[in-house]
Amino acid sequence: MEVIIVILIIALVTAVAVRGFRTPDSPGIVRLKLDGKISTIFKHASIRSQSFKEVIQVTLKPEEEKTLTFTLKTVKQNSEFTMMTQDDKSEEETQMERERELTRQAWSGEDSYELDEEVKIKDHEDLMDEEGEIHFFFFPDGEATGPKIKLSVGELEFDLLLDRLNSQVNLKQSEE
After folding, report:
1. Which of 65, 94, 130, 137 is deepest in the core (most CB within 10 A)?
2. Does 17 reside within a domain?
3. Do residues 141 and 148 make contact, with C-beta atoms less than 8 angstroms apart?
4. How many CB atoms lie within 10 A of CB 100?
5. Which domain holds residue 39?
């Protein structure tokens, strides 16, 4: 009986020690975490663009010693509903326009998303505009455009590409 108690105590101590010991994430896990965060930002921009028929700009402003922040904002609104006169609109179209406008008002402005502090951007100087920003654009037809950027997490480096046709993020570990 005492042997069983001793074994249980050793098992319990081992379980607590193993749980407290944290190994660094593998490159695959780091990539999946980063891909999930960036995919969420870009999916939000794509859905917002397609839902409201607007061009959405996602801006990344790399600043030294700061967290990378992506900011979403409307660049151009589509005026397909406002071009029709009130007489041309059916009651259903008028109701849809009201609902869309209420949703747009609730979801207007800029949305910001921050990445973890350890995520840094590399070799980005030639990608920036005059204000020191990097831009991605999402269009109502589901397309998107933006530059290839290089991100690092600790010693790991990743290339971030945005698929032009379906607005999907492609994050690959750099082969350097």
Report:
1. 137
2. no
3. no
4. 14
5. 31-173
Residue 136 per-residue DSSP state: E
Report the phi/psi class of residue 48: left, alpha or beta, with left for phi > 0 and alpha for psi in -120 to 50. Answer: alpha
The dihedral over CA atoms of 48, 50, 53, 55, expressed in degrees to the nearest 10, equals 70
- When divided into structural domains, the chain yields a total of 1
Q: Are 70 and 59 in contact (CB under 8 A)?
A: yes
Please give the Cα distance from 10 to 45 (Å, whole number). Answer: 52
> Per residue in 77-93, pLDDT tens?
655 434 444 455 677 77
Is pTM beyond 0.90? Reply is no
Query: What pLDDT, in 10s, does the model give residues 29-39?
Result: 888 888 889 99
